Amino acid sequence: MKKSPLNYFTIFSLLLFSTNSYGDANEAFMNVSATVEPSCTVTVSNLNFGPYNFAVSKETTTVAILCTNGTKFRIDMGNGNAKEASEVTRSMSHNANYLKYSLYKDAVMSNAWGAGNTGGISGTSTGVMQYFKVYGRIAENQNLPAGLYRDNVAVSLSIDGLSGFGYQISVGMDVAALIKP
Prior knowledge:
The protein has helices spanning about 5-15, 115-120, and strands at about 40-45, 45-50, 55-65, 70-75, 90-95, 95-105, 120-125, 130-140, 145-160, 165-180. By secondary structure, it is mostly beta strands.
């Protein structure tokens, strides 16, 4: 392959006549900034009580959130699908039958998990995955027909944004129990 003298001349010219802008009196600086808006994700595991034998039945599941560090949040639980459900007593259904259960924020099951400032859980994110236990309890002596009883509870994560606008993420938590014949 024959090398062209023009290529060497072009390279030599570029090196000879190029200027170095370091230390040049005409320097300009550019300010760079970024705003990190609060952001979160939420996941929830289903609550499966397994077989119900008319005695007290207890089970736990977990809500996991990941938010940007310093984000203020609140986790709320809906009442489920039954019309007569409340924060204190929810109901799983099978045909026209209802198996009552409750969700709590604490292991001793004294604080019902619901919505709002008193029913939800509020906090400030640490920037790493945070886990919150959900404690479920079915009361004893509910004499109901055999079948698979189910409910779906909305788990909502609310945050406030820097721009004054907040948002809410909701996911469904399936709740189930089986009454055997």
